[in-house]
Design brief:
globular; 9-stranded antiparallel sheet; 6-stranded mixed sheet; alpha+beta; 19 helices
Length: 600
């Protein structure tokens, strides 16, 4: 559980600096500034000076318990607004992400009610900055709390609660796990720990930003001399932001920015350790999909495509009729898991639209599976409006119960699954990027389905081509293995003792030693099981399952020992600074299952 908490914390830290949270940053920064009155905006006054206090001074004196005296000069109160805002944001985000769907369903409320509540609170806080009587009304619920300073920062806490309802961070496997558990009401201790850790992680950078706003307010002369005007301007900006969020104006900026946290997010949330921990939160249905891994270089056989189950509504089909995958035999199918508020999804949609346009008449069917991340994304009208706005013309399935999401063992927004003309999943890729690679595989599947097809030029010319000379994916299957060398010949489904070739293992070849049980899907290690191969790539990876260890030797030198646990998972074996030729040898404990090597 400690490891799970650490994964959640790191994931939250990365999320809180991603482009997806840009809309809330100006509000957090401004909210960290002055409340009704900052000490920097006041000049200490003593009784008997002969100067009449301003309204602001009267307000400050009342809140501090009485007028200052010669013996007791006015002591400035600490501005805790940054802490109040971030605390409210984290509390409402964590609570409603886990329990929002359950509460809304139990009360029979509209799915997007929480978003409208958040927008309303943002407008009210903006009005409170412009009109002090409104701010006093917002702080009344906190009047019974003994600490006077807490009372004063009540509106800041309310602002945080509202922002938590509008906070839509980029979704990776961690947030996906939390969201799915919350949507299904399957809240375990692990999910609670993951949610709290993720929320704390997101809070840290936001708190730093809010504290920066407070410091600016206390140090910059404009804040001290024009505090009232700046509060009015802040209020106007908050109201403007509420309308910008309501009418989806902010997403244009988010889409324009590169996803600069993508690499860090994938390193943390899609690491071997994270995969193992997060996969333990789900069941083992459709385990055949584990034969494949994210973004493999070649087409693989990942099992029969699961059905599109639990779809509440279909868009862009004749009369809203459902699409049956079995009726699409003979055509290549691309399934794109997306959700309309996900910026990463929005940036990938233009590529998918281009593929639909270029290859629909050549045998490709694109299906968008809209699996909502938040409750407001379940609203059919919202999804239909956004589908039209993005210019999507291919069928869109509303997967509000996340049944299809579960069927495909998905973990990311966006995610793309390629299904061949026989109904077999052949490839999937998570997140943005790899567009040229995905299109190349689409073209390959179209040619397999119809060797006579004449394809147009590729739509994507992005330079993410495979490294020249890279060793191709190596399947540990008696029927699909390429480049096996050694003695004896591979034998199906019974233990056999193998030996390395006397001349060594050449480039792009693989050999076995010790006892192995080789089969169609995987090789199972026995006594003294060893495996050798020579490859050219920057890194080598192996899909493994079972319980045990793998000791890795590179060019005769022992480099690491890998702990293997559970269902088939991709493990990183080697990592070089650049592509190079290397001789790899593995020693596996008995019982481990090895499926396929991939190279990067």
């Amino acid at each position: 559980m400690i490891t799970l908490a650490l994964i959640g914390l790191l994931g939250g830290l990365i999320t809180a600096v991603s482009p997806c949270i840009l809309p809330v940053l100006p509000v957090v920064f401004l909210a960290g500034g002055p409340g009704r009155d900052t000490p920097a905006a006041r000049q200490p006054a003593l009784v008997g000076t002969g100067s009449a206090p301003t309204d602001d001074k009267l307000t400050g004196d009342t809140l501090s318990g009485g007028p200052p005296t010669a013996e007791r000069p006015e002591r400035p109160e600490r501005n805790r607004r940054p802490y109040a805002v971030v605390a409210g944001l984290v509390l409402s985000f964590a609570f409603f992400t886990l329990l929002g769907v359950t509460i809304i369903s139990a009360l029979g409320l509209p799915q997007d009610i929480l978003r409208y509540v958040g927008l309303a609170l943002l407008v009210l806080i903006g009005l409170g900055l412009i009109l002090p009587p409104v701010e006093r009304i917002l702080e009344k619920p906190f009047a019974r709390i003994p600490q006077r300073q807490v009372n004063k920062e009540g509106s800041a806490f309310v602002l945080g609660l509202g922002l938590g309802l509008l906070y839509v961070p980029c979704a990776g496997p961690i947030l996906a796990a939390i969201t799915v558990a919350g949507a299904r009401g399957e809240i375990s201790a692990d999910i609670v720990v993951l949610t709290v850790a993720f929320a704390i992680g997101t809070a840290i950078p936001l708190l730093v930003f809010a504290l920066a706003g407070r410091r600016v307010a206390e140090r910059v002369a404009a804040f001290r001399t024009r505090a009232r005007k700046l509060r009015v301007i802040s209020g106007i900006l908050m109201i403007a932001l509420a309308f910008a969020l309501a009418f989806d104006v902010t997403t244009a900026l988010q889409r324009a920015l590169p996803d600069y946290t993508r690499a860090a997010q994938r390193t943390v949330e899609d690491s071997d350790t994270a995969r193992q921990k997060l996969s333990g939160l789900y069941d083992d249905s459709n385990k055949e999909l584990s034969r494949c891994e994210d973004g493999a270089d070649e087409l693989r056989s990942c099992g029969q495509a699961p059905p599109l189950a639990g779809i509440s509504t279909w868009l862009n089909t004749p009369g809203g009729s459902p699409v049956d995958l079995t009726a699409l035999r003979g055509r290549v199918v691309l399934i794109d898991f997306w959700t309309y508020s996900c910026i990463n999804c929005q940036r990938s949609i233009p590529h998918i639209k281009e593929w639909d346009r270029a290859y629909r008449d050549k045998g490709l069917t694109v299906i968008g599976v809209h699996s909502p991340e938040f409750a407001f994304e379940k609203n059919t009208t919202n999804v239909a409006d956004q589908t039209r706005k993005f210019g999507i013309r291919y069928p869109v399935a509303l997967d509000n119960k996340l049944d299809t999401w579960d069927n495909y063992r998905n973990r990311f927004w966006p995610a793309k699954y390629l299904i061949d003309a026989r109904g077999t999943v052949r490839h999937f890729t998570f997140g943005e990027g790899r567009y040229a690679q995905t299109e190349s595989l689409i073209r390959e599947l179209l040619r397999q389905a119809d060797p006579t097809v004449v394809l147009p030029p590729p739509t994507d010319q992005a330079d993410d081509r495979l490294t020249d000379g890279r060793t191709p994916e190596t399947y540990l299957s008696t029927h699909r293995i390429r480049g096996y060398t050694g003695t004896p010949e591979l034998t199906d489904d019974k233990p056999v003792t193998y030996s390395y070739p006397t001349a060594g293992t050449p480039l792009n070849k693989i050999s076995l030693a010790g006892t192995w049980t080789t089969g169609y899907e995987h090789f199972t290690a026995g006594k003294n099981a060893r495996l050798a191969l020579t490859y050219r790539a920057q890194n080598a990876n192996l899909v493994l399952a079972g319980e045990g260890t793998v000791t890795v030797f590179v060019d005769g030198e022992r480099t690491r020992t890998i702990e293997v646990h559970g269902t088939p998972t991709l493990y990183r074996l080697t990592e070089h600074d650049k592509a190079r030729e290397a001789h790899l040898e593995l020693q596996l404990t008995p019982g481990l299952q090895a499926f396929a090597f991939t190279y990067g």
